[in-house]
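Entry, Tuesday afternoon. Goal for today is a structural model of the target with zinc ion bound, before we commit to ordering more compound. Inputs were pasted exactly as handed over by J.K., no edits. I checked the ligand SMILES twice against the vendor sheet because last time a stereocentre got dropped in transcription.
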Amino acid sequence: MRRFWRAAAAAMGAAAISATAAAEEIVLIHAGALLAEPGRPAASEQSIVVRNGVISSVQAGYLDAASVAAETDDKVTVHDLREHFVLPGLIDSHVHITSENNPKGRLQRVEMSDPDRAMLGAGFARTTLMAGFTTVRDVGASGGDAVFALRDAIARGDVDGPRLFASGSTISVTGGHGDGTQGYRDDVARLMHSTGVCDGVGDCRQAVREQVRRGADHIKLTATAGVLSNTAAGLEQQFFEDELKAIMETAHAMGRKVTAHAHGVQGINAALRAGVNSIEHGTFLDNESIRLFKRNDAYLVPTVLAGVTVGAWAEDPDSFLLPPQRAKALTVGPRMIDAVRRAHDGGVKIAFGTDSGVSRHGDNAREFALLVEAGMTPTEAIRSATVVAAEHLGEYEKFGSIAPGKYADIIAVDGDPTTDVTELEDVDFVMKEGVAYKTP
Ligand SMILES: [Zn+2]
C-alpha cells in the first residue's frame, strides 16, 4: 500500500516537472508544527500552499483542498503532516558529491572515468536529498566536468538530487592540498594534472578563469595544507599573499565568491586579509581571525563531522590512512570542535557544512549534534543550515525559509528538532520545488 502511494506520488512529481501553463499543480501541506523561519518561534496547525513549485501562502489552520483551487481543473495534492514538525529544506555548504572516501580511493582516482564519477555522484545526490538536504555546495570535485553535468541534470529534473552549486576543481599550489597527485608515479601524476593547480600570479589568474569557463558557480582554494593529501607538509599556509590576492581579484572580477580551505592560523588570516568570502574548517583560528571574519563579513563553514571522521580513522590501526594523513588527522580531528566554539563565542557567522565525501553522503545531519556540543543552541544550528547558509550562498530570496515567493523546499521530522536536534538525522518528508521525493 505504502509502496503504491510512493509510486503515485513520484508519478505526480514527474508530471509537475513537465507541465507547462494550463491547469495549475497545487500542493497543500498541513503542518502540525511549522518552523517557517528558524530563529523565530514555530507555529502549530499551519497550511502551506504551493503553486508550480513555489510557496504561494502560509496560513493558520488546516485549509481544505477545494478552497485552494483557483480553477475547477486545478489538481490539488494534499500532504498530511499534522503529526509532524515541518521546517525548510536543509543546506550543506561543504560537500564533495562525486566521491566518498574508501580503502580503494587512491586506485579509483586512476580507474574511474569522468562519466563514472557523474553516475557515482548521481547516487550520492539522491542519498543526500533523501536525508533532507535540498541544496548543497560542492567545493572541489573529482571527475573533470562531471559535477557540472550532475548540477545541470538535477536542475532539469533528469536526476533526483539537491540543488547543486559547484566550484569545479580546487585551486591549489603544485604539490599542495588540492593537487592530489602526491605519491603517484610521475607519468601517471602528469596525466592526472588538474586545471586548478597553479603557481604565481599569472598562472593563478588563469586557473580561476579556467574554472569559470568550465561553469564554476564559486571558487574554492586551498590556502593551507590539509589532512587527506598524501604529503607530510604540516597544516600551514601554502599560497603566497600575491597569489591569494590574484585569485581573489580574478574571481571577484568575474562575479564569483571565493572560499578557502584553511587549517593553520597563518593561512586562515592570510586568506581573510586577501578578502575571501568564507573559510572552510578554520581549525586553528585565533582572535585576529575572528576580527578579520567580522571585518570582511565572512562566514566560517566548520565541518566538525569531517574532524570526527578522520580522527576515528586515525585512532584505528587498521584504517586505510597513509602515515602523513594519519599524523595530520590526529592533530586536526579533535581540534575542530573548539574552533566552532571560539568562532561562535566571538560572533562569527557560521554556515553549516559537513565535508560529506570524507564522511558518508547522507550522514550530513550528524553535524547538528556536533554544533550543539560546540555551544550553539539547536535553533542556531538549524538556522546555520537554512537562513544563514542561504545568505552565505547569496540566495536567501529564493530559499532558506518557508515564505511566499520562495521555492517549496520543505522537510518534516516526527519530533521537535529545536529541543532535540538529532531528530534531523531521521527525516520523514522531503520536498524540493514542490515535488515530494519522500513521504511518511
Ligand atoms: Zn572538503
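The domain at 90-393 is CATH 3.20.20.140 (TIM Barrel).
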